[in-house]
Design brief:
The complex is a heterodimer of chains A (93) and B (387).
Chain A: E1 5-6, E2 14-17, E3 26-29, E4 32-35, E5 45-47, E6 56-59, E7 62-67, E8 76-77, E9 82-83
Antiparallel strand pairs in A: 1-2, 2-5, 3-4, 5-8, 6-7, 7-9
Chain B: E1 8-11, E2 17-18, E3 22-27, H1 33-42, E4 46-49, H2 59-74, E5 78-85, H3 88-101, E6 106-110, H4 111-114, H5 117-135, E7 141-142, E8 149-155, H6 159-178, E9 182-185, H7 195-199, H8 205-224, H9 229-232, H10 236-240, H11 246-253, E10 262-266, E11 277-280, H12 286-295, E12 300-305, E13 319-323, H13 326-331, E14 338-339, H14 350-366, H15 371-375
Parallel strand pairs in B: 3-4, 3-5, 5-6, 8-9, 8-12, 9-11, 10-11, 12-13, 13-14
Antiparallel strand pairs in B: 1-2, 1-7
Helix pairs in contact in B: 1-5, 2-12, 6-11, 6-14
Classes of the chains: A mainly beta (93), B alpha/beta (387).
């Protein structure tokens, strides 16, 4: 774990910051450059792929929720733009 | 690894081995709480288990209350017991039930019989003093890793829990199971979204079904209450730590359970009958989980935390707190027994961190005090109230 972010499974569409990252920072993900659109604090997620509204969010190779809006690579992925599909909350933004 | 060699504990009258030698003082009703605290304040070596329930309970609550109150006193770390009751009938019933299950020394004092709280304290303190002095003759003798029943719990989770402290804990769970030990994990809400992964590890089809059914029942409770789980779990400190949904929290949480087969599902505060890895149906709040794990017979709990969580449960069971979050390791250091945040910085891998956790577990088994034991961060809570 030498990098400042982690992608836990190759199918994941989000990465987890393992140190505080600044907006504008450029990261190399799978050989491609991704410029962070937001500040990403340690433990928080950012998108490493283009995600459309309604798409599943994948971490640990599993579904952790769905996108409430279109999400661009390098965007903070959190409660403001994804929602749970469980506990009676499906479709909630 | 030398810290994990030469483990010792106290073999008690029930042929169970404790890693502590406590005299517990349990209060059977809310009116006993002040006496329990005052007796414990006066008498060295006692753990006060004061609580606010036991009057007019009914249904499932009553069943779970009775079971967790009795079973918590049967915990192997409890060498002897003082029961503080309010009225004679329930007190006698409790003492009788204890004696059916245990040969450990027990004394009781009843406030309505003896004439008030001050007299309860006076008589209770004298009885507790004798119990403690007698227990102090108990000696540590060898035990094997496989003699242990440990609980695993994550609380104050953040994203580092799922990628560092939980997988480190999971590796230790595998080692304990392989040595023939027992491990219990719980927190039903926090398998929602990950139950399909756990079900695949069930020892057979019926246990797999039980796992799925338990998670669904929990989700149904929320629906019936008109509650959106999203509003209660993840909690604000989880969200601040980067966890967005219950699925994400659960998928991170289950890595603390390691990789071995799941033997069975047990109910809140139930003592498992066999050996192996058990899932206990319980709420997720730390004080309730730690109480139920103590009742289930754990001698020690590994508590994986991201943001730091000071809960200590009933006090009879050492809670070994581990974090993978470097901010928490310094900011909340008074409540952290082991810092494995070097994993996050790339200076250590998960296997190396699990060796260090194993060593710390060995030290705590042999008597090293946890921060929770020293700070007395006790919060005994024998009734599960939420999700």
């Amino acid at each position: 774990m030498k990098s400042n972010f982690l992608i836990l499974t190759s199918t994941d569409n989000v990465a987890t910051a393992i140190s505080d990252l600044k907006a504008g920072e450029v990261l190399i993900v799978d050989g491609k450059e991704i410029k962070l659109r937001d500040e990403i604090k340690l433990g928080h997620k950012f998108s490493v792929k283009q995600i459309k509204k309604g798409d599943f969010i994948l971490k640990y190779g599993e579904i952790i929720g769905a996108a409430s809006y279109d999400i661009y690579p390098g965007e903070h992925v959190h409660v403001h733009n994804i929602h749970s599909l469980r506990g009676g909350s499906s479709g909630r933004h | 690894m030398e810290d994990i060699d030469g483990l010792t504990g106290y073999w008690n009258a029930d042929n169970l081995v404790g890693i502590r030698n406590h005299t517990a003082i349990i209060g059977l009703s809310p009116f006993c709480s002040q006496a329990v605290r005052l007796i414990s304040e006066q008498v060295f070596g006692t753990i006060p288990m004061a609580q606010m329930h036991g009057r007019n309970e009914l249904g499932l609550n009553l069943e779970r209350f009775n079971r967790s109150m009795l079973n918590v006193t049967l915990n192997p770390n409890v060498a002897s017991l003082l029961v503080v009751g309010y009225e004679p009938k329930t007190t006698q019933r409790f003492v009788n039930e204890f004696k059916l299950k245990s040969k450990k020394p027990i004394e009781s004092v009843v406030t309505l019989e003896i004439g008030g709280i001050l007299e309860t304290v006076k008589s209770g303190a004298k009885k507790a003093m004798d119990l403690v002095i007698n227990a102090s003759e108990n000696k540590r003798e060898p035990l094997q890793l496989g003699d242990l029943t440990i609980g695993v719990k994550c609380g104050g989770s953040d994203a580092t829990s799922g990628i560092v402290s939980n997988p480190v804990t999971g590796r230790v769970v595998d080692k304990i199971i392989d040595a023939g030990g027992n491990v219990i994990f719980s927190e039903t809400t926090e398998i929602i979204g990950a139950e399909h992964v756990l079900a695949k590890r069930a020892v057979d089809e019926s246990v797999a079904e039980k796992i799925i059914r338990t998670a669904m029942a929990n989700e149904e409770v929320a629906r019936h209450a008109g509650v959106d789980l999203v509003d209660i779990n993840p909690v604000p400190d989880n969200i601040a730590g980067g966890i967005s949904t219950i699925e994400e929290k659960s998928l991170g949480a289950i890595s603390k359970t390691g990789t071995r087969k799941i033997t069975d599902v047990i109910d809140y505060a139930e003592i498992p009958e066999g050996r192996g890895l058990y899932f206990m149906d319980s709420p997720s709040a730390a004080h309730e989980v730690l109480t139920a794990l103590a009742a289930a017979g754990t001698q020690l709990v590994i508590f994986s935390t991201g943001t730091g969580n000071p809960s200590g449960g009933p006090g009879t069971v050492p809670i070994l707190k581990i974090t993978g979050n470097p901010h928490t390791a310094s900011h909340m250091k008074d409540h952290i027994d082991l810092d494995v945040s070097k994993v996050l910085l790339g200076a250590m891998n998960l296997d190396e961190a699990s060796e260090i956790l194993m060593g710390m577990l060995g030290k705590v088994v042999k008597g090293r005090l946890t921060r929770g034991e020293v700070l007395k961060t006790w919060d005994f809570s024998p009734i599960p109230t939420g999700l």
